[in-house]
Amino acid sequence: MLHRRWFPERIDGDLVILRRHARENLADFLRWYQDPEVARLTRYQDGPMRPEEIERFFLMRAVGPEAMAMGIHIKGSDRLIGSCAFSQLDGDNGSALFHITIGEHDAWGKGYGSEATRLMVDHAFGSLGLHRVALAVFAFNERAIHAYERVGFVTEGRSREAIWRDGAWWDELHMSVLEPEWRSARWQAKAAADGRPLGGAVPG
Ligand SMILES: CC(C)(COP(=O)(O)OP(=O)(O)OC[C@H]1O[C@@H](n2cnc3c(N)ncnc32)[C@H](O)[C@@H]1OP(=O)(O)O)[C@@H](O)C(=O)NCCC(=O)NCCS
Fold it and tell me: Does residue 100 form part of some domain?
């Protein structure tokens, strides 16, 4: 149960609220993960998961005792649009792998994914005390790459031509953000908001 206690019931942003998944979210998971376009953007395999695989995935990775996943809800309407999670939490080295899927197409490109990612990264560094958050993304997924860059992820490497999709080979990018980078970016954003000159020592 340790992992779940690391996550609050909810994390509030300006556009979205992250909330622990409830059992009834399974119906939405089944719809999202059977969507061919979501599969194209997220899976090595050609085509979506089978319903029984999605149900297993949901039980293990969304509501299971080891799951570190949160539903993404639009603030105001509370509509559930997707899911984000950490996996491979490595306490010895202070690192985790980040995943996000907004399953509702009409919710893409409206800033929800960037904010959900930022809230999870803030939680990783500000509350969990992690040092590094990493992720992997296919090079053709430009929307995702932009969203991650907005939050401070940088490309640290690539698996060359690791995926065959839409008749071509594509790299898989490996991106990460480190806690000192996150702290420095926050400090600069705060200084800019306060109208103070940039520079000087970033508080520890
Ligand atoms: C990837 C994902 C989480 C991004 O969330 P989002 O809410 O759609 O993205 P945001 O609106 O926060 O940011 C998208 C950025 O990409 C840009 N963008 C939007 N559509 C784009 C497109 N088709 N091509 C390139 N860039 C695009 C936006 O302008 C924005 O950048 P900006 O803020 O610098 O203007 C979401 O689209 C998603 O879950 N998609 C399906 C599954 C997926 O791809 N998961 C990620 C697997 S690694």
Answer: yes
Alpha carbon nearest to ligand 1 atom 7, residue: 113
**Residue-wise over 144-177: b if at least 16 C-beta within 10 A, else e?**
bbebbeebbbeeeeeeeeeeebeeeebbbbebbb
Domain around 36: 2-191
Please write the tens of the pLDDT for every residue from 101-152. 999 999 999 999 999 999 999 999 999 999 999 999 999 999 999 999 999 9
| Helices 112-126 + 179-194 axis angle, to 10 | 110
Q: Is the CB of 143 under 6 A from ligand 1?
A: yes
Could you read off the pLDDT of 11-67 as tens digits, one per residue? Answer: 999 999 999 999 999 999 999 999 999 999 999 999 999 999 999 999 999 999 888
Question: Is 83 a pocket residue for ligand 1 (Cβ < 6 Å)?
Answer: no
Q: Is the CB of 139 under 6 A from ligand 1?
A: no
The CATH number for 164's domain is 3.40.630.30
- Total domain count, the chain: 1
Residue 11 maps to a domain: yes
